[in-house]
């Protein structure tokens, strides 16, 4: 390529997972892989509008947050894979509203983090639901370093099939907004 001023170079509109480009700093030119570059901080705010149910006791399930409220460089793939376009370190925060609909004994819900389909060690937490129809909110955060194209998923397992991630519609007197079954934010830090 001829020696052109920056203003005449072709514009890059997307960075693929295998892209490389040159960066000059203090008189030295470096080769940078796209997983270590981004333009501005990436972010995602997403939620799930309906109750999530149908869980069995012998499987791990992905928690869905399929409705995107706002985002920059992070997308939701397959309803539950929070996928970054560029690499960096990210803070994933979430809340889910748990409910046990019936059955008189205490039951457990375990929630953990997976990255690119692999469980993250020591990320699991156990929540005990002691009573029926007693809403409980589980909320915490994780910090993970990711490359372009990586994704995070929130996973869960239940000890009773009557456990759900509960959502509720608009309320009145006074008017209050809907309650999603899951809220997820993922922000680059």
Task: Tell me what the structure shows.
With 189 residues, this protein is mainly beta. It folds into two domains: 6-35, no CATH class; 41-188, Jelly Rolls (Sandwich), CATH 2.60.120. 0% of the residues lie in helices and 49% in strands. Strands 4, 6, 7, 9, 10, 11 and 13 form a seven-stranded antiparallel beta sheet that branches. Strands 3, 5, 8, 12, 14 and 15 form a six-stranded antiparallel beta sheet that branches. The protein has a two-stranded antiparallel ribbon with strand order 1-2. A hairpin with a 3-residue loop joins strand 6 and strand 7. The protein is elongated and about 75 Å long. The model has no long low-confidence stretch (mean pLDDT 90).
Mean pLDDT, nearest integer? 90
CATH topology of the largest domain: Jelly Rolls
Radius of gyration: 21 Å
Number of helices: 0
- Any idea of the CATH class of the largest domain? Mainly Beta
Task: Quote the beta fraction.
Answer: over 45%
- Secondary structural class: mainly beta
* Terminal CA distance: 35 Å
How is this structure best summarized?
This protein is an all-beta fold and 189 residues long. It is built from no helices and 15 strands.
Helices, strands, pairings?
Elements: E1 20-25, E2 28-33, E3 43-48, E4 61-62, E5 67-72, E6 74-77, E7 81-84, E8 88-100, E9 107-115, E10 118-119, E11 125-129, E12 136-146, E13 151-158, E14 163-165, E15 182-188
């Amino acid at each position: 390529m001829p020696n052109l001023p920056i203003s005449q170079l072709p514009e890059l509109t997307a960075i693929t997972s295998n892209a490389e480009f040159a960066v000059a700093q203090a008189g030295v030119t470096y080769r940078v892989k796209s997983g270590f570059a981004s333009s501005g901080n990436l972010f995602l705010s997403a939620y799930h509008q309906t109750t999530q149910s149908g869980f069995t006791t012998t499987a791990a399930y992905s928690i869905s947050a399929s409705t995107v409220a706002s985002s920059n460089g992070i997308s939701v793939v397959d309803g539950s894979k929070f996928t970054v376009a560029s690499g960096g370190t990210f803070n994933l925060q979430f809340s889910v509203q748990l409910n046990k609909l019936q059955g008189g004994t205490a039951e457990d819900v375990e929630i953990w983090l997976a990255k690119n389909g692999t469980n993250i060690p020591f990320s699991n937490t156990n929540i005990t639901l002691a009573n029926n129809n007693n809403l409980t909110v589980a909320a915490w955060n994780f910090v993970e370093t990711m490359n372009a194209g990586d994704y995070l998923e929130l996973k869960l397992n239940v000890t009773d099939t009557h456990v759900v991630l509960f959502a509720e519609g608009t309320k009145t007197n006074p008017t209050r907004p809907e309650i999603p079954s899951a809220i997820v934010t993922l922000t680059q830090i």
